[in-house]
Amino acid sequence: MNQFENELKNGKFVCSECINCNKLVWPPSDFCNVCFSKVKWRQVSKNGTLIEFAKKDNVIFCIAEFENAIRIMGELETGIKIPSIGQDLNLVQCNYDDKEKFFFRLK
Ligand SMILES: [Zn+2]
């Protein structure tokens, strides 16, 4: 397991950030994919944007974007709201169980 998966297991969504060019490195890696410098790990903002969504059975799956750089897939909780692309959402939960699991809620 890498650092990313380890932190997810503890409910923390972290990403690697280059210590040289300050770029978020996605997918997470120990080295920058632009300048090959080392990275530091930091928590990602929980405020995201809805990019795409699809309903399957009674679950809404979506792609959400964070910090204009990271796109992840997860389950979307809408409450009484109807989702539309571009809407703001929050990351409410994450986990790692053989694969990454993310749960979002519309703002
Ligand atoms: Zn870099």
Q: How would you describe this structure to a colleague?
A:
Strand 4 (47-56) and strand 5 form a beta hairpin. The protein folds into two domains: 3-43, no CATH class; 47-106. By secondary structure, the protein is mostly beta strands. The protein has one helix and eight strands; from the N terminus they run αββββββββ. The strands form two sheets. A five-stranded mixed beta barrel has the order 4-5-6-8-7. Strands 2-1-3 form a three-stranded antiparallel sheet, covered by helices on one side. Zinc ion (ZN) binds next to loops.
Give the neighbour order of strands across the main sheet.
4-5-6-8-7
Question: In one word, what is the shape?
Answer: globular
| Total discrete domains | 2
Structure annotation, total helices? 1
Order of helices and strands: HEEEEEEEE
The profile of the biggest β sheet is: 5 strands, mixed, barrel
Based on CA atoms alone, the radius of gyration comes out at 14 Å
Number of strands: 8
Regions with pLDDT < 50 over 5+ consecutive residues? none
Strand-pairing-aware structural class: mainly beta
Overall pLDDT level: 95
Small-molecule components bound:
zinc ion
What brief labels describe this structure?
globular, three-stranded antiparallel sheet, about 110 residues, five-stranded mixed barrel, mainly beta, binds zinc ion, about 5% helix, 2 domains, 1 helix
